[in-house]
Amino acid sequence: MPIPAGMKFNDQGLIVAIVQDAENQEVLMQAFMNEEALRLTMETGVAHYYSRSRNKLWKKGESSGHLQHVKEIRIDCDQDAILMKVQQVSGACHVGFRSCFYRVMEADGKLREDGNKVFDPKETYKT
Amino acid sequence: MPIPAGMKFNDQGLIVAIVQDAENQEVLMQAFMNEEALRLTMETGVAHYYSRSRNKLWKKGESSGHLQHVKEIRIDCDQDAILMKVQQVSGACHVGFRSCFYRVMEADGKLREDGNKVFDPKETYKT
């Protein structure tokens, strides 16, 4: 399955990936992909990323079971970012929220929680 | 207006910014902000970014008039990405589309246009 010509991976070989809920359009998370992660995502239909902190390919939900089934992949005008619409199993965020963007910045710079906890990380990651 | 403590700008002093239409939840674009761009965005209520290609601060819509009026700013769990909900004047994409993500990746790797052209770049950027 060929990767489109002209895609711009950065000097670390990565591209921004934005993940959006295919049903309610909520933005769930942002991660990075290298070419292999994108290829695996296209081939398997489940999201793969590249972890910059662990320096390795990462299948989302491999340990938690919280897979992302990819419904559509879009590319932006500059071809240096992709937008994926996914069917998210349980929640995207390792903290237990449906979306990683569960905090709103207030005018005074304080952060206010505004999101739904859908799983308990202590249970999910207990092994 | 203080920037929240703990925000993680990368080694180039930048953070990923995802821009979403506050009305219909369409993802409009992705750009980068440095600390000054975020501060100006919070202070003025219109989106500012940092252009990596031009190495300068950038007020979105300064020449086109296609401003982004910021309704909400969210931060992700790792505090290395922000999500802004905006009221977009005209279109976000310099090509003339409402969203920069106007192309869908097909299974064969080909790109298919799927978006609404809302302005003519030749007219908008003619000066």
Kindly report the CATH topology of the domain at 15-94 in chain A: Ubiquitin-like (UB roll)
CATH superfamily of the domain at 15-94 in chain A: Phosphoribosyl-AMP cyclohydrolase
- Element order, helices and strands of chain A? EEHEEEEEEH
Spatial gap, N to C terminus of chain A: 35 Å
**Overall body shape of chain A:** globular
Pick out the low-confidence regions of chain A. Answer: none
Largest interface: A-B, 40 and 40 residues
Specify the helix fraction band of chain A: 10-25%
Number of strands of chain A: 8
Tally of contiguous helical segments of chain A: 2
Beta-strand percentage range of chain A:
25-35%
In CATH terms, what is the architecture of the domain at 15-94 in chain A? Roll
Question: Keyphrases for this structure?
Answer:
homodimer, about 130 residues, mainly beta, Ubiquitin-like (UB roll), four-stranded mixed beta sheet, two-stranded antiparallel sheet, 2 helices, globular
In brief, what are we looking at here?
The structure is a homodimer of 127-residue chains. By secondary structure, the first copy, chain A, is mainly beta.
